[in-house]
Amino acid sequence: MEVRVQAACFSDGRLLCALHAKQGDDYWVLPGGHLDPGESLWDALAREMEEETGLAVENGRLWAVSEFRAPDRHVLDCTFLVSEFSGRPRLGTDPEAAGVHPASLTDIGWLDREAFVDASFRPT
Predict the structure, then answer these.
(1) Which pTM was predicted?
(2) Which of 51, 68, 95, 111 shows its CA 20 to 30 Å from the CA of 34?
(3) Which CATH code, of 3.90.79.10, 3.40.630.90, 3.10.290.10, 3.30.1330.60, is assigned to 2-118?
């Protein structure tokens, strides 16, 4: 089973999202990724947020846990509601996808409610 963390980070009514492009398919996700061996959920979240967005998460709580099962995949997603962060979002890197999809992470942006409803959004 894969364990992943992701951040629901809000500012001024907008949600921070990461845009991915794979094989001509663009879609938004919450920033996050897999745990490294021996890493806590919080430490993984802090690392992933810094890698992908440049933000330092300072406070938050586990908000939701969801499970995805497929014949070839079993994923447990742990979503944190991030209430405090520092820095300004910048496009970082997605080391997990570097070998498979080098240009996977293509943008970071704050989506308001209208943009979120119109966006192609995926859970993971």
Answers:
(1) 0.85
(2) 111
(3) 3.90.79.10
